[in-house]
Amino acid sequence: MRPTSERIRETLFNWLTPTVPGARCLDLFAGTGALGLEALSRGAGDVVFVEKSPLAAKVLRDNAQVLDASAADVRHADALTFLTAPSGKKFDIVFLDPPFAADMLGDLCRLLDEASVLGSGALVYLEEDRARPETDLPPGWRILKSKTAGNVRYSLAQVDQ
């Protein structure tokens, strides 16, 4: 696991400040849950955490309980499977931070777009290896902000639907 650094999280949530309160969030590849838990602490309406590792999902569930985060819904599932069997729920903010070695960010954006899980004007946080070419986004997606830190390129995209 490679949790999003504190410096990057601070910048990301400065970008998201006006949109987090009441937002429905999806934290794919949740890992430690740092992004989703931060969203909850800033007033997100609810967060669905999707984590493939059974141990990480259990730790995340336990941490949500300790923090009394009743709006946290931890799913022990593969992100791709989750996106191909959507629940009908629409998300306002999606945190997308897959393992860099998997090189799957473009496919995940396409799946998100096709799965009809994005609310109108949804924001998608993208984190990727800075050494790779920028991910091609689906039509109707545009980068609002982008920065680099160390070997990480991180961006905030908006989906115009």
Explain what the structure shows:
This protein is α/β, with parallel strands linked by helices and 161 residues long. It has a single domain, classed as Rossmann fold (3-Layer(aba) Sandwich). It has helices spanning 6-16, 34-41, 54-66, 79-84, 105-114, and strands at residues 24-28, 46-51, 72-76, 91-96, 118-129, 141-149, 152-159. It has a 7-stranded mixed sheet, with helices on both faces. Helix 3 (54-66) links the parallel strand 2 and strand 3 (72-76). The radius of gyration is 14 Å and the shape is globular.
Task: Outline the fold blueprint.
Blueprint: H1 6-16, E1 24-28, H2 34-41, E2 46-51, H3 54-66, E3 72-76, H4 79-84, E4 91-96, H5 105-114, E5 118-129, E6 141-149, E7 152-159
Parallel strand pairs: 1-2, 1-4, 2-3, 4-5
Antiparallel strand pairs: 5-7, 6-7
What is the gist of this entry?
The chain is α/β, with parallel strands linked by helices.
Which key terms come to mind for this protein?
161 residues, alpha/beta, Rossmann fold, seven-stranded mixed β-sheet, 5 helices, 7 strands, globular
The top-level CATH class is Alpha Beta
The number of domains = 1
Largest sheet: 7 strands, mixed
Helix content: 25-40%
Identify low-pLDDT runs. none
Summed up, the helix count is: 5
Total number of β-strand segments? 7
Rounded average pLDDT: 91
Please provide the ordered H/E string of secondary-structure elements: HEHEHEHEHEEE
Strand content: 25-35%
Radius of gyration: 14 Å
